Amino acid sequence: MLLDAGEADRNPDTQRDHLTALPDELLLQVFEALGRISRRDLCSVSRVNKHCHRLSDAVLYKSILFENPEFHLTFSESLSRRPRRGSAIYEVKLSYPSSELSQLALDAPVHSSHLDPRHSDSLSRTLSIMSNLEKLDISVPDVLLHGIGTLFNGPFDLACLKSCSLFYQCANDAYWDLRENIHIFAHPTLEELTIRRAKLDEKGFDHIERPHETALKRLHLIECDINDDSLGDLLELPEALEEFVMTQLEEPEPELEESSDNVGDYVLAVQSQAEFLKSLTIDFPSLTGRKVLRMRDFEALTTLRLNWDYQLFGKSSKKPRLHSVGLPPILETLEFFNDLGTDDEVTDLLLSTIEQKNIIARTWKKMVVVEGEDGVPRAIKDACKEAGLQLDIIGAMDTDTDTDARTDTDSDSGGSI
Length: 417
Known about the structure:
By secondary structure, the chain is of the alpha/beta class. Helix content is 28%, strand content 18%. Helix 5 (69-81) crosses helix 7, helix 9 (228-234) packs parallel to helix 10 and helix 12 (344-355) packs parallel to helix 14 (378-387).
C-alpha cells in the first residue's frame, strides 16, 4: 500500500537516507566534487552521520597545506587524539617563510596544543602518523632541517612515499646541508625527488649505512652545490633511474664551493645509471667541457640537454683531439640552451657529426637550439636539411627568404627547418 507524503513524514520507518544509500565509490566522487567547490559545505556534510563523516574525512584530509607553524602544531594535537585520521592523508605541503617562525611565534603558546613549538620533533611526529602519505613538499626555515631529516632514518616512517621536494630557507640565502636529510636517498619506495639549493661535500654517503636498491626514477637538483664524487655515490643506489636534471644559475650566489667546473665530471657521476637513464639535463652555464663526452654506454638515453655545444664537444685547445664525440646510441633529441657558434673548432665538429648522422646517430631526429644574437650558423642549417634532421630554433622569426630551407614554422616558439 502506498503512503502519502504526510503519512511518510509521520512514520520514521518509511524515511530513507538516499545519500548514504549510494555506493562508497560514488559518494567519494560526489564529496570530492563538493570539496573543490566549497570545503565549508563538505564539512557540513561530514556532520550528517558517521558514514558521511568517515568518507568526508578521506577527502578533507587527502591533501594538507601547512601555511604557518601554529597550524602544524594544532594539527599535530588533533592527530594525536585521532591517529586514524592520519591514514587518510596522501599529500602534505609545508610552505612558510622564516618570518613565520620568528622567536615570538616560537615562544608563543598555541591554543589547544601541549606540544613545544620550539622543537621540530613535533612536526616529524605528525608526518610519521600519516601512514599512507605519498607526496611530501617541504619549503620551511632551516631550523626544522634536522627534525624532518629524522623521518628518513627508518624504514617504517612514510612507507608509501613516492614524491618528495626538499628546500630549507637559510640566512643570507645560503645553501642548506643535504647531509642532514641524506637518508632520503635510501628511501625504498620514493620515485621522484627534487632538492633545491642544497650543498653536499665530498664525504657523500657513509658506506656503512648504504642501502641496497631504491625505486628512485626521477632526480632533480635545482640550484645545488653538489660534489660530483658524492653524487656518483648517491646515484649507485637507485635500481633504475630514468631522468636526471641538474640546474644552476649563470652567476650562482653565494659562490659554489663543492661543485666541479667540468660537465664531464657530472656525466661520469651518472654513469652507473647509463643502462636505464632516458633523459639527461644539465642546465649549468658555468661548466666547461675540456674533453669530448663519450656517451655510447648510455644505451637508453633518448633526450640530452646541455647549455653549450662545447660542453658536448670540448673547447678548443692546443692538444690534438684523440676522441670523436660518442653520442648515445638511440639518441632522438639533442638540445642546447645557449648560442651555437661561439667556438669555431666546436662548430666544425658539430657539422661533422650532423653530416655523419646516419653512421654515428641513426635515431637522432631533432636538434633544438636558440636563435642567439648572431643567429644559428647557416652551415648548421644547411647540414641539418641535408641530413634530414629537424632543427627547432627557439625565438626565430619567419624571416628566412630561402623558403626551400624550411618545412615548417612556428611563429610563437621558433622555426623548424
